[in-house]
Amino acid sequence: MFILRCHLNVILAGMLAVPVSGFSAAILPEASPDLSEPVLPAHICAKLAPRQDYSAGDDSQRLQSAINHCPRGEALQLLAGHFSSGPLTMKSGVTLWISHGAILAANTDPRVYDKNGRCGTLDDKGNGCRPFIVFKNTEGGGIVGEGTIDGQGGERMQGENESWWQLARRAQREGAAQNVPRLIEIDDGSNMTFHGITLRNSPGFHVTLKNVRNATFWGVRIDTPANARNTDGIDPVSSQNILIAHSFIRTGDDNVAIKAGAAGPTRHVLLVDNHFYWGHGMSIGSETVGGVSDIRVRDLTLDGTTSGLRIKSDLSRGGIVSDIRYENVCMRGNRRPLDFDTRYDAHAIGNNIPVYRDISLTHISGETGQLVLRGYDAAHSLHFALNGVHFSHAARWLIEAAQIRIGPDGVSPVPAGEASLQPAVVPVDCATHWIPFPVTDAPSVK
């Protein structure tokens, strides 16, 4: 098991035990330096070299066989070169180690992912494909290494005249749902580690966690074009004790989206020192019916995301979102740097009114754009604390049904109707925070 887990458990235990005021002031700053980077597995069950003739067949059978025969607590290592595979099922306690220079490419044939005859087509459900890599009811293990997993979402599907991403755009035009595979799906897992890996070009979401306990993403790179529809980066759903640290994400939808469906709440999520580029931002929602709480986002850059810090839900999927802390965030090039909206779908029907409360923004800096704080109504208003929040004078507030408390470090521009006795707000010094996306030197799949 990786070294990081013991440190993370201590921190998350503190998140459970310490009141909000004590946590945000004392626990997080003191605990964050104690986070230790995961180490590579000490035991390797097998090392696989790529086939000499990459164009002949794929590696599905030998990869799955090697995973199945790998003992718990050990790793299967892929050496530098090209591997191609259809769907893979991970074994409990087994780590997939993709070495520097190794590329694991997803098969582009919809038939190998098919669940019900619908993969690679449009319908009204969009759940007709198996994921490329699935962890189901697993404990331990994960994916590590400096190599790349390529979903080939922009490549033409085998036997078809369009790519996975083109299928998704056609679904948007026709008001349908696309049946495409996700890159990695974790269902009912625990104690998972993803370290150093590059994920790119997923046909759908890159990583989805459902009912997961204790998962770490450290130094992960997600790299997919901005116009690749519905390609979320990392989505914890009805999960607990999740750490995302020192990672770089640019994609065609939410960079991170924390959700909670009918399966239960999502809570105790910590994001530290991450960098987001194009994408839809640091999101909570839109599914919040199960409740989202105890979320900490610290030392984040949002460089060109459409939305910046975002909570989105509506009547069809709303729930309580509470105890959310954003601290030391730098933003630029965002249309909606702050986007907290309870009417994500204005036409939604239902009785699940979204409620956002006990949310604080401390030392947040951005440029221009719309700053949205929109509660549902007076009986379900937003509750926000703003302290040291600075945007340019060209930024404009859109505030409805919101209760705002301004801290001693002030807010600029001051929301209409809110008094501020503070002098000009001192913005966060973001100059040294901007980092170019660290493009991998791995060759193309082609």
Automatic annotation (TrEMBL):
<dbReference type="InterPro" id="IPR011050">
    <property type="entry name" value="Pectin_lyase_fold/virulence"/>
</dbReference>
<keyword id="KW-0326">Glycosidase</keyword>
<dbReference type="InterPro" id="IPR012334">
    <property type="entry name" value="Pectin_lyas_fold"/>
</dbReference>
<comment type="similarity">
    <text>Belongs to the glycosyl hydrolase 28 family.</text>
</comment>
<keyword id="KW-0378">Hydrolase</keyword>
<dbReference type="GO" id="GO:0004650">
    <property type="term" value="F:polygalacturonase activity"/>
</dbReference>
<dbReference type="Pfam" id="PF00295">
    <property type="entry name" value="Glyco_hydro_28"/>
</dbReference>
<protein>
    <submittedName>
        <fullName>Polygalacturonase</fullName>
    </submittedName>
</protein>
<keyword id="KW-0732">Signal</keyword>
<dbReference type="InterPro" id="IPR051801">
    <property type="entry name" value="GH28_Enzymes"/>
</dbReference>
<dbReference type="GO" id="GO:0005975">
    <property type="term" value="P:carbohydrate metabolic process"/>
</dbReference>
<feature type="signal peptide">
    <location>
        <begin position="1"/>
        <end position="25"/>
    </location>
</feature>
<dbReference type="InterPro" id="IPR000743">
    <property type="entry name" value="Glyco_hydro_28"/>
</dbReference>
